Fold these 4 entries.
Entry 1:
Amino acid sequence: MARLSVVVPSFNEEQGLAAVLERVLAAGEEVRRQHPGITAVEVIVVDDGSTDATAAVAGAIRSVKLIRHDVNRGYGAALKTGFASAQGDYLAFLDADATYPPEMLPALVQPVLERRADVVVGARVSDPEGGMPRIRALGNWLFARLLSWVIEARVTDCASGIRVFPRSILADILDLPDGFNFIVAMSTVTMQKGLRVLEVPTPYFARVGQSKLRVMADGLAFLGSIVGVAISYNPLKFIGPLGIACIVAGVYLSIDPVLYYLHYRRVEDRELYRLITISVLAVSGLHIINFGLFSNAILAQSFGEAPDRRSLLGRLFLRSPVMRIGRVLGPTLCLGAVALNHRALIQYLTTGTIQEHWSYVLTGGSMFLVGLQLMMSGLLLRIVGVRTEKRRRMLGEISKADAAPTPADR
């Protein structure tokens, strides 16, 4: 038998709180009726430093557990306080402003009980007569598109304030921000960690009372949470395109000098700074991509999964054929650099001076740096890949051993 705890974070919500709590209590009874596995439902109100009668309203309802913050600590902090006090095997939360219908709780609980999802999110469907302001609807759409790109899966609502999940995932979300951006960070973290997130269409209505959301400030906090968490779990997703952009810019700048050389068979001194820029862009771009690849590989080892599954660029660059090309190309570029500058090297070793044109030295130096970087990064990725594969096999064997029936089971 299991319990469900419903946390209702509240800050200056005296106007509509009583009606919302009565609906939550009724929804709790409906959860018990529809799902016999849930034997008890507790409702926890966390008063986050309200200056109105929020605490008095909640305290007047005997079936509600009231927790108070002395000062306003933030939406996420209120949720975490509620979770810490909750006794339930399953946890839910929803806002106190009547925007989310508590009557959706039975439908949101069901997929978690059936183990079809680790987190169930009430994806908002706005009431046409009120509901969400257009500027917020646009912001939520943009954030959902950004998160969809980050995790490479379709997300329709990453900022919903009504969710249900088992206590077992609580450790994954307790270190999230204390502000409104808690819910966006929760969406990002749970999906990046591979938890099964199910969205259930949920009506969304105009709030009771004055909104506490600051469109610009909280919007920037939402954006920062998505980007910050995503970089922590998938660095290549963000820095990989920067590296590619550097390489593309270098290739673009090299078109004119290459065409000029092919036509006249010489490099003009006026091209010195352009060629230095090309060299810097090429080496920097490769370095950025290698850093992203190596970071993703390290993170993949930490989470026990193959590194090529964490990013589209990772899947491209870390495939065996591409890795083999890199292992061949690195030494080839280094040898090519030595061959291109062998006369300059002999001159310097024998006379202490170099008579060759500077373009040979610059081109050879760039080739050598790129080749060396390819060789070293390939070696590091190979080492990490071997360790990751060993860890995956070990975890697989442990899982099989845990699943095998014991003599007592037989």
Note: Strands lie at 2-10, 38-48, 64-69, 90-93, 119-126, 163-166, 197-204.
Entry 2:
Amino acid sequence: MPILNFADLSTALQTNAATWQAAENVITRLPEDARRALLGVQVPAGYQLPQSASAPVAGFAPAVDWRNRNGNHVTPVKDQGGCGSCVSFCTVAVTESMASIEKGQLLDLSEADQHFCSSHGANCGGWWHPDAFNQIKSRGVCDDAAFPYASAFPGGNIRSGPPVCRVAPDRNSRLTKITNVIQLTSPTAVKNHLTNVGPVAAAFDVYSDFYSYHSGVYRHVAGGFESSHCVAIIGYSEAEQCWICKNSWGPGWGDSGFFRIGYGQCKIDAYEKAGATGVVLPAPPHGWFGYESLGGGITSRPSAVSWGANRIDVVARGLDSAVWHKWWDGRPGFPSPASCGHPTTCATPPSRGRAP
């Protein structure tokens, strides 16, 4: 249905003493069909929430946010473009977070590989998040550099179509997998999982006022039903009685791409949630394991080589377009890597790193 008139929505928020604020944004400015195309959850026919198992033994905290829980384990907000690929974005987001929590690895995985090359097929249709997780478990998902999301679309325009599947020749050596898919069917189980394990994938129904969300705790106040959507729940607050969620509509929507939604709102607690554990990383080059994060970001796959006993050199291109070099010779300590500018003209003494 047409987007709510912003003045009417503002009046409805005030009349209902709403706990959230609205604003025009990149989504409200889209045509009606383009907005609805973002909502890609296919709820199974005749779906009923499975009966909850006995409550977990471990307790849950009064509040959790995995952006600030012994570090930030939530990867940057991404943009699904004009495609109904939200299920792949939310399941990949959870997998990336679990790689950080379990392995200390900051990954950027390929939603395109997950959505267009899996059993789902090369189309922008919807999916069901437990099924999507089972694909990560069975076939894995490669890194984004092997199949960038934009490269699936004509001219690299993520709001065009149709998408295609592109399989990198070395895909099988670049796969991240999960070992377990965890079904969560009660709010208590979800809070327990968020406290003790990590983020989860969740589906909920979208009403037209949600497109205008800007901040606060969203509770539906106006507008009709649109369709269903999938997001990653990264935390919750008992004080505010809400889930904290990571969306996939880019950082220009909502609270820098995130939002909070009240418990039970829009059937968010009527659909099962799913978690993932047991991340299995691809084997690094030359069989080296246990790399430590140096911080920052890179725009190329690291190149690693060992040319002698107790010696490893790692070279990668940074976000500043410089080439960064790090080496380890068996001694402790890991100062920041030195920028070499270019491998063939490196004049900066390399820094020494910690043993893998």
Note: Residues 296-330 form one domain.
Entry 3:
Amino acid sequence: MTDTSEVRPLEPRQLKWSARRKLRKARREGRTGLLAYAVIPSSNRNGYRYLRFVYVREGRRQLYAGSVDDRSVRWVDLPPGTHRLDFVVSGAGKEVALHREITLEPRQVLVSWCYTTYSVKPFDRHPRPNRWYIGVLDPPPREG
């Protein structure tokens, strides 16, 4: 797998509906944590090399795992503080990882979603990168 990954700025309006709904609930409850999901296009070709899996890991702990069959949005409670996270796209027995150190304050939410790609050419020299959208959202202002 000759995939690469790139990080793009997170736009909360671009989140899918179910992610926005979970985000509103978490912010309303004042929770701190990770909201993650993946968009993994399925190939019409049958083959192991086209399978993609997306993971978010903290050390050996797997916080999120996504596949073509599982398009659900996941919430994971995280304590405030610094977290060393790996954002991984895996396929055909190989992994491409982004390493980030992220500090969360109380009531902040880390949002991470990935759009994976693959090349239909067996030995494509210029495959499109996997796109990660990662950002920390501050709590909404308190009313009153």
Note: Residues 5-137 form one domain.
Entry 4:
Amino acid sequence: MKREFNFDIIDEIKNRWSPRAFSNEEIKKEDLLAMLEAARYAPSCFNEQPWKFILSYELDDLNLIRSVLVDSNRLWADKALAFISILAKKRFDFDDGDNFWAKFDAGTAWGYLSLEGEKRGLVTHAMGGFKKELAKERLNIPEEYELIAVVAIGKLGNREELATDALKEQEEPGSRKALEEIYMEGKFK
């Protein structure tokens, strides 16, 4: 499916999507760190920067992440050569109040991270399909943080190597609602 854009926007946004086919082509740690650097500069409420990231690229760490994914994600994510787990701090540092915007801010950081990956020739696929309590335990996540997503990272692979026909059929950029469907002027209509 070819995506159509109403306006000229940056290429990284035009080209980014969430594939499931990863190649075994090596990725550079420098590129992963640059992705985290991009995420570091995301805006946040009160400049709180409530995110933390767990980078997994060594074999033991990769296997640990794979062990907490749900089976439907393991079918394809096992081939990813890196993962970044995204966490959000639940409370503000400045007053210890609930940070209702932490997940929003962590999501913004994820967006920056994914676009930097796209710029560097890497593909990313964020997943909510993980065993939350098991992940919390195995990743040693403290109570004040919540694991929001696990991102599979690598170079784009061959869709024909995916485990099932259903996965092969889904392996293309997703459609988007028309611009007119997602915004209103003045108030909700």
Note: The CA atoms of residues 73 and 106 lie 22 Å apart.
